[in-house]
Design brief:
The complex is a heterodimer of chains A (219) and B (306). Chain A has 219 residues and is α/β, with parallel strands linked by helices. Helix content of chain A is 41%, strand content 15%. Chain A has a 5-stranded parallel beta sheet, sandwiched between helices. In chain B, 39% of the residues lie in helices and 19% in strands. Chain B is an alpha/beta fold. Classes of the chains: A alpha/beta (219), B alpha/beta (306).
Chain lengths: 219, 306
């Protein structure tokens, strides 16, 4: 079984008892989370703004040996793993679940690091549906205005949101142009771990402005 | 003596900034109105401008708190409320150390009218778990309470008016969470907050002329409410009156009603608003229109105590 298939199978079996809770948005987030957690260093911060992908996050944690089988299968049970990530879980600095707030939080962390002269990157994982929220674009302006080059956003560009395709519900294209117009450096890659890892490395090398990686889902 | 809430805030923030290098101030393009411009001048490296975006400012502050700073967010109260859900889901839920200190609450932004006047914020903040809610009565109270707000670990909403701050205290020895007893009385108890504390004191003097003995407490901390002081003083009177520059639903009046009805059923009159505001060239004309005057308090009490 390939490295990719294994977490996917785990995800499916974990979500079967809960009516496939956000299964698709979790599936498309697996490689993104896995690439970021592999790249993450001690002083880096990860914000899972699309909190709906919590199941994928748990599967990755399980793969890293940070969650047991029993914990994994307690997903969304009353005393089990919360359905959207909350502060206190490994790597989780802020609770999410409400869309559109993670990029602002990431900016705040990057600003505090800058004031303290600390290094470290802030990785913010956004859904493409989440980009409907106006606050994301408020935060995009804040990050570029303040030249927050330690902020790296990753958009899970899977082309669907809750009730349909992203281009039917509220079109996002031309997505790369939008980010560029807001003063961001844009890197577009297929949603595959190795490509994502390379993109993260490239992003870290670009100074002076925030960076966004658009991770395209290819069926 | 009439002073200004926002002036007192702007100056107090600079003093606290000198002592505590962790304080970071965030602005949504209203620094000249909220007086955080003084902080910007003193500590430009700890002043963050995010533009006219209240949702972004609240969540950015959350990030600063996660990273160990003490962020102070100042904006107009009415517009900070558009970020209520951000305050709920990102600040209160994680119990983050963010200080929300809006100005222009109540009717104090009299010229701008109903869109800018904030008469619901105490209620909205009071329902949030982890959130402390503070309303200083006058300008000298502002630095005293702000210092304690900064020292307290956790989210705080400290509500300020704009300019009209009649002096209540000479040297306020206020303690967060502890009501300040300004006057003892045996017939009625006036429980007031914010600028209405001065109105309550004036009403108490008028009542005294009519032979009615009125106690007055400054309930500067609305959450957690000092139930002990409230119940102790309420037990001695037959009528309790709450006064606030806010809706009577869910604010100080609501909080006092909850405690009294559960622990010491007592006749209560809530004085505040039930409507949206309106534009006025004169702040006092608004207080008059909405019944927030000493004369109206005396009249309402007279209707009950016959």
């Amino acid at each position: 079984m390939s490295e990719v298939l294994e977490p996917k199978t785990k995800l499916q079996s974990m979500l079967r008892p809960v009516n496939n809770f956000h299964l698709e948005s979790s599936e498309t987030c697996l490689e993104i989370l896995s690439a970021i957690l592999e790249e993450k260093r001690e002083d880096d911060v990860v914000i899972l703004s699309k909190g709906h992908s919590a199941p994928a996050f748990y599967v990755i944690l399980h793969g890293m040996g940070l969650l047991s089988d029993e914990e994994l299968y307690s997903f969304a049970d009353i005393d089990g793993l919360p359905s959207h990530v909350i502060r206190g879980l490994p790597f989780i600095e802020v609770s999410s679940g409400s869309l559109g707030q993670g990029l602002s939080v990431g900016n705040g962390i990057a600003m505090a690091k800058r004031i303290d002269g600390e290094k470290g990157y802030v990785y913010v994982i956004l859904g493409d549906g989440e980009l409907d929220e106006g606050q994301v674009w408020e935060a995009a302006m804040t990050a570029s205005h303040h030249g927050l080059d330690r902020v790296i956003a990753i958009v899970d560009r899977n082309y669907f949101q809750l009730t349909g395709g992203t281009e039917e519900i509220l079109s996002k294209e031309p997505l790369a142009d939008k980010w560029r117009a807001f003063g961001w450096e844009v890197i577009e890659v297929p949603n595959r771990r190795e490509e994502l890892r390379k993109a993260l490395e490239t992003a870290r090398g670009i100074r002076g402005r925030p960076k966004v990686i658009i991770a395209r889902w290819e069926v | 003596m009439i002073e200004s809430f926002r002036e007192a805030f702007g100056r107090a923030l600079v003093e606290l900034g000198k002592e505590n290098p962790n304080i970071v101030v965030l602005d949504a393009d209203v620094k000249s109105s909220t007086k955080t411009a003084y902080f910007e001048r003193a500590f430009p490296e700890r002043f963050i401008q995010v533009g006219i975006s209240e949702q972004d400012i609240v969540s950015t502050a959350a990030g600063l708190a996660v990273a160990g700073k003490i962020p102070v967010v100042s904006a107009f109260a009415a517009f900070l409320m558009r970020a209520w859900e951000q305050i709920r889901n990102t600040i209160a839920r994680d119990n983050l150390n963010v200080k929300l200190v809006p100005t222009h609450s109540g009717f104090s932004d009299h010229m701008d009218g109903s869109s800018h006047q904030c008469l619901e914020d105490i209620a909205l903040m009071r329902v949030l778990p982890n959130m402390t809610v503070v309303v200083p009565a006058d300008a000298p109270s502002v630095p005293v309470l702000l210092r304690q707000v900064i020292e307290l670990e956790g989210p705080v909403y400290m509500r300020l008016g704009r300019d009209h701050a009649p002096r209540v205290y000479e040297r306020p020895g206020l303690e967060l969470g502890k009501a300040s007893v300004l006057r003892k009385g045996s017939d009625v108890l006036l429980v007031a907050t914010g600028v209405m504390v001065s109105v309550a004191l004036e009403a108490a003097r008028k009542l005294e002329e009519r032979g009615i003995s009125a106690g007055v407490i400054d309930m500067h901390t609305i959450k957690p409410l000092d139930e002990e002081t409230l119940l102790r003083l309420a037990s001695r009177v037959e009528l309790v009156i709450t006064l606030e520059e806010h809706s009577i639903y869910g604010g100080l009046g609501g909080a006092v009603a909850e405690v009294l009805s559960e622990k010491m059923p007592k006749r209560l009159i809530r004085i505040g608003t039930t409507k949206f505001g309106r534009s006025s060239r004169d702040y006092f004309a608004l207080l008059e229109r909405y019944g927030l005057t000493a004369e109206n308090v005396v009249r309402r009490i007279g209707e009950v105590l016959v």
